[in-house]
Amino acid sequence: MTPENILATYERQARAFDLARQKTLFERPWLDRLINHAPQRDGKRHVLDLGCGSGRPIAQYLSDRRCEITGVDGAAAMVALFQANLPRARAMHADMRGLDLGETFDAVIAWDSFFHLSAEDQRAMFATFARHLAPRGVLLFTSGPDAGEAIGRVEEESVYHASLSPDEYRALMAEQGIEVIRFTPEDPECTGHSVWLARKSA
């Protein structure tokens, strides 16, 4: 199992994943922190959701709170579900690696998506995050609690996960002018997710 299998796996399992995905919004405290920290333009926050999946429940929650959502996913089947679930949002079929949309956002999210990339691809993503963050824009992503690799499951298929060390994530963000606001490894109030919230400098 390698990171190169991820997109094909989610292509096959998109509908089953969407049906099985928890909709209880255990992520809500972190999403509320993002809303509270992110700047606004014209009374709205423009959010880029990388690895957006079906849009449920994260993008839907943010959309309900007057965020303008752009969803990006490398699996076309996920993009189709996202468009069906959030018809007023913008959706794009694209790989997050090396992405350059030529615009900036008030917040960028990579929830349970970025950690499917290899360690080298994760390192390169911080330039991509920075390129899409407006000044004072907020970054929210999940990782592992420390450096390592793991294999998880999506339905009956195995999926790859990787993480860098917290110190390396901090260093990579610092190189891009992104400062950590909060990091909670294995957050007990978020089903054990390790979550980062950070902000780009002005």
Explained architecture:
With 202 residues, the chain is of the alpha/beta class. The protein has one domain (3-200): Rossmann fold, CATH 3.40.50.150. It has six helices and nine strands, in the order H-H-E-H-E-H-E-E-H-E-E-E-H-E-E. The protein has a seven-stranded mixed beta sheet with strand order 3-2-1-4-5-9-8, sandwiched between helices. The chain has a two-stranded antiparallel ribbon with strand order 6-7. The longest helix is centred in the N-terminal third of the chain and has 15 residues, at 6-20. The termini are far apart. InterPro entries: Methyltransf_25 (IPR041698), SAM-dependent_MTases_sf (IPR029063). One of its GO terms (molecular function) is methyltransferase activity. This is Methyltransferase domain-containing protein. Residues 47-137 form the Methyltransferase domain. Keywords: Methyltransferase, Transferase.
Task: List the defining traits of the structure above.
202 residues; alpha/beta; Rossmann fold; 7-stranded mixed beta sheet; globular
Short description:
The protein is an alpha/beta fold. It is 33% helix and 31% strand. Strand 4 (105-110), helix 5 (119-132) and strand 5 (133-143) form a beta-alpha-beta unit.
Describe the secondary-structure layout.
Layout: H1 6-20, H2 28-37, E1 45-50, H3 58-64, E2 67-73, H4 76-85, E3 90-93, E4 105-110, H5 119-132, E5 133-143, E6 148-154, E7 157-163, H6 166-175, E8 178-184, E9 194-200
Parallel strand pairs: 1-2, 1-4, 2-3, 4-5
Antiparallel strand pairs: 5-9, 6-7, 8-9
Helix pairs in contact: 1-4
- Give me the secondary-structure category: alpha/beta
The CATH homologous superfamily is named Vaccinia Virus protein VP39
Order of helices and strands: HHEHEHEEHEEEHEE
Largest sheet: 7 strands, mixed
- CATH architecture descriptor: 3-Layer(aba) Sandwich
Distance between the termini: 40 Å
Strand order of the largest sheet: 3-2-1-4-5-9-8
What is the quaternary state of this protein?
single chain
Give the tally of structural domains: 1
Q: Could you say what the CATH topology is called?
A: Rossmann fold
Give me the count of strands. Answer: 9
C-alpha-based Rg, rounded: 15 Å
Low-confidence stretches: none
CATH class identity: Alpha Beta
Strand content: 25-35%
Mean pLDDT: 93
Helix count from the secondary structure assignment? 6
Helical content, roughly? 25-40%
Overall shape: it is globular
